[in-house]
Amino acid sequence: MNIYIINIISLLMSTIISFIGTPFIFNMLNDSNCLCLNYRKERIPSSMGLLFVIVQTITVILIGFYLKRDITKILLYLVGFILIGLIGLLDDLIGDEKVKGLKGHIKSFFKGRLTTGGLKAGIGFLVAVLISLYISKSIIEVILNILVISLFTNLINLFDLRPGRASKVFIIMSVILILTSGNNYFDFILFSFFGILIRYLPIDLKAKCMMGDIGSNILGFTLGVYCVFTHSMNVKIIYLLILIIIQMIAEFISFSKIIEKNSFLRFLDKLGR
Hints:
This protein is mainly α. The protein has twelve helices and two strands. The longest helix has 29 residues, at 3-31. It is globular, with a radius of gyration of 18 Å.
């Protein structure tokens, strides 16, 4: 079957499942008092990224087994995806908000105290290593792929500070990655997420729920895995440099302030709210 038809089927399938599943997940989180304060100090359901894990897993498994090609890569993605989601959910539920940034979690670890953020970083790194060892042809490529997956995994989390912002960054990055990829076989992984966001994004934009770390982490992880699956070494090096620059900027400057000062970025950020 034509890969473009597969992408459309993937998008439609995840859209349908999302429309069915969203009210169930939303009400479950709300009834269980799994709530957090948004930037307006309103209590809303958090961890709606749980919807992402369920829908993406179902869609990718069905499409992957139908295609019957590179099934090991697809299963590696799903195992890593579910693990990252699980640790992200743990961070949402019992994470220590007093410990900030990767440096803070590393310091806590060496002081003998494991934080959910430190656990998340460790599991994320392990998953990146396993995937990279399987798909890479040299030590240099292993290191490159580990860094790309790890930094992409944290990327969306840096922007998840206002309604809809994380989803918009994911969509923009997905389109850029698709346009620069040398292999469109794995596009259905991103198209499946587009279907999920068709249902999820409107309620996020209205600040009625938050995706949580579980959502932002698996969005970033998906971008990272797609990048290493489909791009050449040279292009991945460019992405790695961009990711490093973004991470360094985030250590010293607020992206919210940057967005507020730029009229075009501010327009994109507020679009749909």
